[in-house]
Design brief:
The protein is α/β, with parallel strands linked by helices and about 450 residues long. The protein contains 18 helices and 16 strands. Strand 1, helix 1 and strand 2 form a beta-alpha-beta unit. The protein is elongated, with a radius of gyration of 29 Å. The structure holds adenosine-5'-triphosphate and magnesium ion (MG). Magnesium ion (MG) binds next to helix 7. Adenosine-5'-triphosphate binds next to helix 7 and helix 15.
Amino acid sequence: MNNVQKVPTHKAPSEFGNGLSTASVLVVDDEPGIRNFIGKLLHPVVGRVEQAANAEIASRLLDTTHFDIVILDNVMPGTTGLSWLVEQRKLGFFADTILITAFADMDTAIEAMRAGAVDFVLKPFRSNQILNAVARCVDRVNLRRENYLLKYELASGNDLARSRLLGSSAVIQNIRTTLERAAPLPTPVLLTGDTGTGKEVAARALHVMSDRADKAFVPINCATISGDLIESELFGQIRQDAAGRTVRRDGVFMNANGGTLYLDEVIELPLDVQASLLRVIEHRKLRPVGSAREVPLDLRFIFATNGNLEDAVHQGKFREDLFHRINVLNICMPVLRDRIGDIKELALMFIQQIAKSLGVPPLTLSEGVLLNLSRYDWPGNVRELRNLIERSLIVGEWPAEFASDRNGLEVEAVDSLAAVERRHILTVLDACGGNRAEAGRRLGISRKTIDRKCAMWND
Ligand SMILES: Nc1ncnc2c1ncn2[C@@H]1O[C@H](COP(=O)(O)OP(=O)(O)OP(=O)(O)O)[C@@H](O)[C@H]1O
Ligand SMILES: [Mg+2]
């Protein structure tokens, strides 16, 4: 027991929940003693704590920095904490607020609730009271955020292992390398490619490799939100409720703050929302609908579309300045028929994953089936392959057009040999980026042989 470190009694973060360590807190109090006391108390357990000696300094800090929580003294020279809070709410102030006060009368309590304070701590207080109030706030904020984000997570479908970009073809390997290089940078990434080619999988892979991996990945499909709601859905909204109180509703951007936002079908955004989005990307600040103040925002953007953005720009449907801003790094996901060498790996993985999750026995992937899978065109790309496998596992057999043993054992044996050869040659060709001379060298056969075989398979 000689290595045990002394843990100061009030500092153990787990005692107050884990979310605390990333929270940012602003302490607003005109008394330096109390400010410093709270600052010192929170410093070891929260991500960041800053102090403001008066309302004016506090307002300036809110303009430039995002805080999850504000601890606010009610009695300050020139104003009360609560009237400052009401003002700030109108400007579009987003943090949860804990009020500290020496006077615990009913009027102040009601006023605090009206102003939107979420907690109340009486002076003089003990350190645990402050820590508990902050921990409760963080829990509430996280819970609200998780609940909110869950609907987007569910809407994007929840199949397993979505952040694993499978495939060993040359093009997928290149994409994986590009994703690895882009992951630590703040640069926006634009993923293009046909439906089902794995744009979202690539986006999740990028997120998981980035330093935001432990924060939220929020997928949102711009095509599924109706035009008049989309601005407040994305950017949030400040408005007066029936009782005249200023209330706020955080949008997707605020809820994803700190994490990665995956904006799918970005081509569908209305033009005015495109303009707001451009401002958000350029200034890293967000102005909720109805708000006078911009809120600082820390988001990694990944965009995707299976439409043609350049065409949309020419047709005046997509802003050119936004296009250039998001088209810094464009990764185009290849269609499956251009990388049939990956079909085996994908199919084996899907069989294993889906059989396990459905609790059904796996199907065998014979060379014959693999050959048939390789011959098919896959207009729906990897998604179609995945769906075919899921369907086959439920039925318990491969569909007739893909099954290998329709013509009996003998044919299967012959079929199988040809299939092995074909698949091997195509895989090597794929790895050489389609260069037949290079593939021939690697395989130890002539380029002519490859030409002949390819011509035969294309018949
Ligand atoms: N390289 C890959 N590795 C593993 N699974 C993949 C891969 N590519 C696609 N998938 C699977 O295929 C399905 C479709 O992928 P995804 O949703 O990423 O496609 P998409 O390009 O976003 O399509 P859409 O344009 O229709 O939105 C998912 O079930 C995903 O798990
Ligand atoms: Mg998608």
